[in-house]
């Protein structure tokens, strides 16, 4: 049996149908072999309600629900990735030992030779063996965070993730849909050969817009996940206090200088864009062909489970690939965001940061945290895209039934 692209559900593949029909309508009529008239095929090629005519509010609602679900599920992997990258950048994770470690060091005081250990044995500061303050991998981060800080610390920064995810994804996915539809309409009529590159450009532009809008919250999340509160019983600072801590060191008595100092909240924006724009370009240019191929296999039999499965599988594959390729840029972004010296933070560039990472750790340093990053990105993209498309599908059918 021969499948034609117009057999894909139109609400997910209107662009592909328009390209085929407008490029060669007679061939499409012949290949379809279904006896439809030219007017019927023109009707099929029009963007359907759920994809093209769904309002911006409906798209934002779909994206926000996907963002909340993804942020909660994958936050522990985000914490592990950030801790490993911050450790490689020189952030010390000391001062928190679980009870068994402290007891072992107290029983064997003769093994402690440093001045710090002597003070610890006298009760002036806690004892902690070197391996207790070093993370060896993703699983080790989970284990030590739970033992030293508590299980809920794996969700450190979730409030920032939620505050970031809803507006970011609420801007990102709807804008991607809108830009993609507009660009596909333009390229179909004027430059059909450029149509395959539309997802790459639309994803890059939409992601850049989202990053510029919500970057300070992204900065706060990274710092909340990277730094730990060493004072027992003290609640770690939230998003607002974290951002105040970023701005305060740069403040002066001059009002105009204080206004200019707030630009430090966008420190590392270049690195963020350098990571997210290629990520989006790789992700969408990989996701769209895979998703359409899956849907092409089922034809008109698409249902909610099939739509969810096709989008999750395509998103998982695309997110994994994009995360692996952009890991060095993610390491550079983290290093720039956790820099505490305001004067140095302003002078750092993405290129100089990558050179510094290469000098300190070589290839291994550039791919620090790749395990949790890939483990986070694949499911996250799969969840966001599949949930987004399923909600769009449900809203489309709800609107269609009420008409």
From TrEMBL:
Its main location: mitochondrion. One of its GO terms (cellular component) is mitochondrial inner membrane. InterPro entries: MCP (IPR002067), MCP_dom_sf (IPR023395), MCP_transmembrane (IPR018108), Mtm1-like (IPR045315). GO terms for biological process: mitochondrial transmembrane transport. The keyword Membrane applies. It comes from the Eukaryota. It is found in: Mitochondrion inner membrane. The keyword Membrane applies. It is a multi-pass membrane protein. Solcar repeats lie at residues 54-182, 194-293, 306-394. Belongs to the mitochondrial carrier (TC 2.A.29) family. This is Mitochondrial carrier protein MTM1. The lineage of its organism: Eukaryota, Viridiplantae, Streptophyta, Embryophyta, Tracheophyta. The gene is LOC107424160.
């Amino acid at each position: 049996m021969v499948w034609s692209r117009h057999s894909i559900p139109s609400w997910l593949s209107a662009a592909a149908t328009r390209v085929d029909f407008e490029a060669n309508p007679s061939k499409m009529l012949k290949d379809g072999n279904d006896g439809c008239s030219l007017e019927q095929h023109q009707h099929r090629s029009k963007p359907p309600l759920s994809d093209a005519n769904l309002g911006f509010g409906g798209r934002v609602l779909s994206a926000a629900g996907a963002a909340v679900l993804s942020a909660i599920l994958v936050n522990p992997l985000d914490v592990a990735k950030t801790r490993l990258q911050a450790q490689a950048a020189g952030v010390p994770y000391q001062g928190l030992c679980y009870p068994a470690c402290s007891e072992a060091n107290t029983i064997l005081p003769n093994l402690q030779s440093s001045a710090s250990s002597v003070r610890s044995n006298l009760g002036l500061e806690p004892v902690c063996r070197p391996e207790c303050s070093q993370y060896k991998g993703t699983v080790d981060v989970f284990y030590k965070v739970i033992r030293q800080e508590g299980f809920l610390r794996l969700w450190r920064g979730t409030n920032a993730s939620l505050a970031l995810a809803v507006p970011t994804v609420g801007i990102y996915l709807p804008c991607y849909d809108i830009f993609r539809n507009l660009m596909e309409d333009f390229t179909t009529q004027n430059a059909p050969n450029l149509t395959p590159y539309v997802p790459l450009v639309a994803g890059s532009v939409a992601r850049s817009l989202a990053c510029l809008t919500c970057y300070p919250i992204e900065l706060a999340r990274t710092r909340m996940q990277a730094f730990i509160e060493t004072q027992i019983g003290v609640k770690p600072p939230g998003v607002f206090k974290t951002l105040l801590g970023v701005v305060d060191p740069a403040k002066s008595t001059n009002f105009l200088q204080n206004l200019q100092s707030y630009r430090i909240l966008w420190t590392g924006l270049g690195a963020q864009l350098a990571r997210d724009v290629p990520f989006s370009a790789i992700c969408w240019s990989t996701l769209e062909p895979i998703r359409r191929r899956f849907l092409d296999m089922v034809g008109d039999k698409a249902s909610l489970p099939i739509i969810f499965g096709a989008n999750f599988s395509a998103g998982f594959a695309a997110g994994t690939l994009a995360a692996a390729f952009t890991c060095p840029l993610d390491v550079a972004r983290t290093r720039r965001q956790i820099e505490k010296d305001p004067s140095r933070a302003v002078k750092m560039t993405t290129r100089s940061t990558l050179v510094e990472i290469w000098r300190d750790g070589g290839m291994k340093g550039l791919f620090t945290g790749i395990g949790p990053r890939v483990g986070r990105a694949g499911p996250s993209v799969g969840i966001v895209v599949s949930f987004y498309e399923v909600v769009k599908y449900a809203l489309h059918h709800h609107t269609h039934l009420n008409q």
